[in-house]
Amino acid sequence: MKPIAKSSKLASVSYDIRGPVLDKARQMEEDGHKIIKLNIGNTAVFGLTPPDEIVQDMIRNLGDAGGYTDSKGLFAPRKAVVHYTQQKGVKGVTVDDVYLGNGASELIQMSINALVNDGDEILIPAPDFPLYTAVVGLSGGRPVHYLCDEGAGWLPDLADIESKISPRTRGIMVCNPNNPTGALYPTDLLLGIIELARRHQLVVFADEIYDKTLYDGHTHTSMASLADDVLFITFNGLSKNYRACGYRAGWMVVSGEKRHARDYIEGLNMLASLRLCSNTPGQLAIQTALGGYQSIDDLVAPTGRLCRQRDLAYELLTQIPGVSVVKPKAALYMFPRLDPKIYPVADDQDFAYQLLAEEKVLIVQGTGFNWPAHDHFRLVFLPNVDDLREAIGRIERFLAGYRRRYS
C-alpha cells in the first residue's frame, strides 16, 4: 500500500446543493406559502421519528451525559458497533477500530482530511452525495467522478472507474445503498471494485448508512466483509435506519489491511482528538438502537409505510409522459429522468426554481449531485401517501405546462 500521511490546506468549497432554489423556498415560507418539501431526507419532519426505546434510554442517561468522552467515543456503543460489524461478516474489528462521530458526515470529512494531500485524487460516484465532492476539495484534493449507469440500474461502471485511476488516486468512495438513486450493489460488482482497489492500492470508503432500508426482500453486503487485504473505512449511523437525523450519531470502522496505514490511522486519531469527542447524548442512543427491535423492518415491508410510498411515487412518476425512473431497491430517494426530446431543460437549477415558484414543490436538481447532464432531479418519497400524491400531481401539472411551452 502507498505510504499514507497528511498535510492539508483548506480550499473554498461549498456544500450547498440547493443555492437560490432553497433561498426562494425560505422566502416563500416567510411570505406565508406552504411548500411541499421533497428535497431532503429529514425523516422527523415527515412524522418518521426514532423508536421510543431509544428516546427513553437517552432520557434516562442524560444526567450522565454532561462530560467529555474518549475522543473515539464511549466504550459500550463502540462495542455494540463491533458486534454489528461481526453480524455483517467483517472480520478483525476491535473497539480501537471504531470512531463515533456527529453523524456519518463528520466522519467522512475526517477520513478524507486525514488522507488527502494537495492534488491527490479520490474517485467519487456520479451522481454523488455532494458531501463527498465538497470534502475532497476542502482537503486540497481533486474529486474525480466515475459514472453510474442508469441503464444498468445505476450500478457503477467498472471500466469507467479503472479509466479514471491515475498515479494521484488515493481512494474510492462507494455509496451502497445509494443516495440519490436508491441502487443496491450486487456482490460481484463490489468484488470488482475491491479488485481495482487492490491492484492500485486504494483506500475503499464505504458509505453504508442505508444498509437496513431495503425493499422487496433484498439484502445488503458490507464491502469490508469481502476482503482483508484492502483498507476499508466504513460509515454508518442512526440518521436514516433509526430516523434519528438530529441526534448526530454515526460511526466509522477501520478494517482490512491496517498494517501499512499506521500514519493514516494516527492522523484519524489526531483529528478525533482535536474535536474532543462527539456529542455524548447521541452516543448513548447507539447501543440501544443496534441491540433493540429493528422497526425499520416494518417500514420497508411490502405493507410498510416506506415501501408503500416508494411504490406510489414510482407509479405516479412513470405515468407522466417523458419521465422514467429506475425503481429504488433501497434508501429514501428517486432520481427521475426527463426525456430531453420532450423536456429540453438547459438549466436544471432554473427548472427546479420554476417548479417551486409555480407549484410550491421543492426538489433538488440533478447537477446538484454532480450528474453531468441537466436531465434528472432527486426527490424523497418520505411524505405520507396523501401529500405524496398531491406533490407529484403538482409536478405532473408543471411538466404538462412545460410540454406545451416547448412542443
From TrEMBL:
Residue span(s) of domain Aminotransferase class I/classII large: 34-395
EC number of this enzyme: 2.6.1.2
Cofactor: pyridoxal 5'-phosphate
Database matches in Pfam families: Aminotran_1_2
Gene3D superfamilies registered for this protein in UniProt: Aspartate Aminotransferase, domain 1, Type I PLP-dependent aspartate aminotransferase-like (Major domain)
Alphabetic keyword roster: Aminotransferase, Pyridoxal phosphate, Transferase
Coiled-coil boundaries: none
Enzyme class: transferase
Signal peptide feature range: none
Database matches in CDD domains: AAT_like (cd00609)
InterPro entries reported for this sequence: Ala_Aminotransferase, Aminotransferase_I/II_large, PyrdxlP-dep_Trfase, PyrdxlP-dep_Trfase_major, PyrdxlP-dep_Trfase_small
Record field: transmembrane: none
GO MF annotation list: transaminase activity
Family membership: Belongs to the class-I pyridoxal-phosphate-dependent aminotransferase family.
PANTHER family noted in UniProt: GLUTAMATE-PYRUVATE AMINOTRANSFERASE ALAA (PTHR43488:SF2)
Annotated protein name in UniProt: alanine transaminase
